[in-house]
Amino acid sequence: MNVNIEKEILQLLKEKGELTVSFLTRFLNERGVECTRQKVERTLRDLSQAGKVEFFYRNGNHRRHYRLVR
């Protein structure tokens, strides 16, 4: 199931560009992938360490925005 979440996250980031954890969780749940914010954060941390996604901060709101590595 973890691979499925990784694939869905990568697909969402490819379609929509940069997203926060809350939006990723919302869109995944709308697609029928049952997951929590913590599970999405853990998966994003793994993807970041693997070099597939990167995160950055925008507008000083201290929320991480994630996007695909170019």
Give the gist of this structure.
With 70 residues, the chain is of the alpha+beta class. It has three helices and three strands.
Features:
three-stranded antiparallel sheet; 54% helix; 17% strand; alpha+beta; 70 residues
What does this structure look like?
- Helix 1 packs across helix 3 (37-49).
- The model has no long low-confidence stretch (mean pLDDT 91).
- By secondary structure, the protein is of the alpha+beta class.
- 19% of the residues are buried.
- It has a 3-stranded antiparallel beta sheet with strand order 1-3-2.
- The chain has helices spanning 2-16, 21-30, 37-49; strands at 19-20, 53-57, 64-68.
Order of helices and strands: HEHHEE
How much strand content do the residues show? 15-25%
Radius of gyration: 11 Å
Largest sheet data: 3 strands, antiparallel
- Structural class category: alpha+beta
Distance between the termini: 26 Å
Please state the overall shape, judged from the principal axes of the Cα atoms. globular
Helix content: 40-55%
User: What's the tally of helices?
Assistant: 3
- Topology, number of strands: 3
